[in-house]
């Protein structure tokens, strides 16, 4: 029987820790503010933004939502980001992605003040992570490190295989696992004999976005399996990249979907908002 890593419980612990520290700042007269920018009315984005605002309410972080029309020009959107950069009452800025067609997300990310980049997407944040300087770290990979550490899973010296090389998960995950002294391999669609590589993993991190792709034959007996997938199975039911019922008996520990990695992302956003105060004080 594998340990089922409970992301809901661990994310709740983190939100409670953040809430206590936010209260301590408040007692010193310091308020923390997150500005969430949503452009257009994509329904999934609306749900994500609402969840972020709810987490802010819980932790005592002030959130302001800036809803902009999908028809906004790149120039006006950049002007809005600039306004938030200059607003001293704003600690964190998050522009919900994806942006509507015609808008350049990379340019918008680059426009965010790196000292307020609570998503950790700015090239300066990414660069700082890769050379071991302080800065904001992308929330999902940061959350995975917390899932492992708080479940008592040692990382140092372990073979870690990451499948997926996105800027938001795969690449920052590789940097974080290196920082924790794992031996890291990053696989992707062009990897030859993927199974041969994933079967070497002590810690396997699946971040490909393909429903139940990883079956037991991809997994080494006794591995720790982290599933970043948010997919739909053949019946339209939410599932991960990992075929949970097939893999679980082979694993030492595994994250479920839902209730594994998912809840950690918002918890780490709250942690980044809290850390922004320290980062901005330097
Ligand atoms: N869209 C999906 N996930 C994210 C995220 O973590 N941050 C932002 N800004 N947009 C997203």
Largest sheet, in brief, is: 6 strands, parallel
* CATH architectural type of the largest domain: 3-Layer(aba) Sandwich
Global mean pLDDT: 98
Which blocks of ≥5 consecutive residues have pLDDT under 50? none
In total, the number of domains comes to: 2
Helix content: 40-55%
Annotation, overall tally of beta strands: 11
Strand content: 15-25%
Instruction: Report the total helices.
Output: 10
Question: What key attributes describe this structure?
Answer:
282 residues; alpha/beta; Rossmann fold; 2 domains; six-stranded parallel beta sheet; three-stranded parallel beta sheet; globular; binds guanine
Write a structural description.
This protein has 282 residues and is an alpha/beta fold. The protein has two domains: 30-121, Leucine Dehydrogenase, chain A, domain 1 (Rossmann fold, 3-Layer(aba) Sandwich), CATH 3.40.50.10860; 139-262, NAD(P)-binding Rossmann-like Domain (Rossmann fold, 3-Layer(aba) Sandwich). The protein is built from ten helices and eleven strands. The chain has helices spanning 7-27, 43-59, 74-86, 105-111, 123-130, 139-150, 170-179, 194-198, 244-247, 262-281; strands at residues 3-4, 33-39, 62-68, 92-95, 159-163, 183-187, 203-206, 223-227, 231-232, 238-239, 251-254. A six-stranded parallel β-sheet has the order 1-11-8-7-5-6. The termini are far apart. The mean pLDDT is 98. Guanine binds at residues 48, 94-97, 119, 139, 265.
């Amino acid at each position: 029987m594998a340990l089922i890593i409970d992301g809901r419980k661990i994310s709740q612990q983190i939100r409670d820790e953040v809430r206590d520290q936010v209260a301590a700042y408040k007692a010193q007269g310091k308020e923390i503010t997150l500005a969430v920018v949503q452009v257009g009315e994509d329904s999934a984005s609306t749900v994500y933004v609402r969840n972020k605002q709810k987490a802010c309410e819980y932790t005592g972080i002030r959130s302001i939502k800036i809803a902009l029309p999908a028809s906004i020009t790149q120039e006006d959107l950049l002007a809005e980001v600039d306004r938030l950069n200059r607003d001293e009452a704003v600690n964190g800025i998050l522009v919900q992605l994806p942006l509507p067609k015609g808008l350049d997300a990379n340019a918008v990310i680059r426009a965010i003040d790196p000292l307020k980049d609570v998503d950790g997407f700015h090239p300066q944040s990414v660069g700082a992570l890769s050379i071991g300087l302080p800065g904001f770290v992308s929330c999902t990979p940061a959350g995975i490190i917390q899932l492992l550490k708080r479940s008592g899973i040692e990382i140092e010296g372990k073979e870690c295989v990451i499948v997926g090389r996105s800027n938001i998960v795969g690449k920052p995950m590789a940097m974080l696992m290196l920082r924790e002294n794992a031996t890291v391999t990053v696989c992707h669609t062009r990897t030859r004999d993927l199974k041969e590589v994933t079967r070497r993993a002590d810690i396997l991190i699946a971040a490909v976005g393909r429903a139940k792709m990883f079956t037991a034959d991809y997994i080494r007996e006794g591995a720790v399996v982290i599933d970043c997938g948010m997919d739909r199975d053949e019946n339209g039911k939410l599932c991960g990249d990992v075929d949970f019922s097939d893999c679980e008996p082979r694993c030492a520990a595994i994250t479920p979907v839902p209730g594994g990695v998912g809840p950690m992302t918002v918890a780490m956003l709250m942690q980044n908002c809290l850390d922004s105060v320290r980062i901005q004080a330097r």
